[in-house]
Amino acid sequence: MLDLSRERVHTASAAWLWIPPTAGRIDTEEYLALRFPAWYEHPLQLVGIRPRRPLAEVLDEVIDRCRAAVGTAAPQLLAWVRLDAPEGLAEALVERGGVLDETLDVLARPLGELPGLDLRVDVEVRWAADFDTFVDAVHLNSDVFGGSKPDRAGLEPVWPEELTKLRTGGGGAVVAYLDGRPVGTAGLTVAGPDARLWGGGVLPDARGRGVYRALLAARLAYAVERRCELAIVKGRVETSAPILRRAGFSAYGQERSYLLDLSTRPA
């Protein structure tokens, strides 16, 4: 079985950055900000910063560029402090009015035998191998994490690529149903030997019924079938992280996001 070191997990975490093909980019050798699809709760995000100049100078520059690029269309910037972030980034964001939005545990486990997850038989799990299930996955993601729901027509252009990824072993979305009703969703991306687990969420009225465990089991089974060595996930400390720890995951650090209001400038 793979012996996980902190360095191995941190390397896997640093390599994990999803950029939609249609995303707008503010990209230099020192930072990367992305404009995600409009249905995201926070479409404008600062996802990486690698300063070669003083951190404060670089951060002020990217904030100004984001403000100029979006005007009033996206008045908030979500800035991520990842495991590989420069020292002092969180404090610099707070100094500029940043408010802590979310804290994630970075968790990982070797992949070999699947953990026992005490699965319930009344939870039905389906991979998004058809368009209707894919729509359920995207809409549930909005219900759980926020943002607006794209209509079916807006999802049709991205559906063929998602289906190809699933069929060729690259991962995809999975949806859980109770009595035929979609109540939870999660995703998986296969990146070489790494299985990246993302977007796991369950509607509030369906929690405590084994839905998240069913979503986790389906993704781990998919990853094992494709001979992945490592499962890595960034779980909310209040909700999914405790379940993941019981499934054999260990924490290797935390990542945090901060919201900055772009409609006002600091004094």
From TrEMBL:
Domain of life according to the entry: Bacteria
PROSITE patterns named in the record: GNAT
InterPro entries given in the database record: Acyl_CoA_acyltransferase, GNAT_dom
Ranges for domain N-acetyltransferase: 123-267
Protein name: N-acetyltransferase domain-containing protein
Organism: Nocardioides panacisoli
